[in-house]
Amino acid sequence: MKSYRKEIWIETPHRRDYVNITRQVEECLRDSGIMEGLVLVNAMHITSSVFINDDEGGLHHDFEVWLEKLAPEKPHSQYRHNGFEDNADAHMKRQLMGREVVAAITGGRLDFGPWEQIFYGEYDGMRRKRVLIKIIGE
Length: 138
Description:
Blueprint: E1 2-10, E2 17-20, H1 22-32, E3 37-43, E4 48-53, H2 57-70, H3 88-97, E5 100-106, E6 109-110, E7 117-122, E8 129-137
Antiparallel strand pairs: 1-8, 2-7, 3-5, 3-8, 4-7, 5-6
């Protein structure tokens, strides 16, 4: 069995953003030479997420509205975590959207449905953060 590991760095211009990272994952898959196996894509920061969904702007807006209803950023005073930092809402948003995804690799390609894409979700941005891509298989 082969194994491949790469970290990619993402820095978003806003506190909250969604970045389609499917192309970077596909590049890693090509570089790995793995034809059959699994890929893990993992946000390595506790205020960001990785998830699979459709690349549609209206949907991303809907995520933002939904997450703000469930874990509003302000007032900062509503959270006991907030003291040194004001990012308690970002931790909660990450819990809702997920830490990582695992996808099948078949024939050297991501084995996705027609609209599936991999996204990095940022909830406390404007600084560099890492995403781990780990691929195993043959």
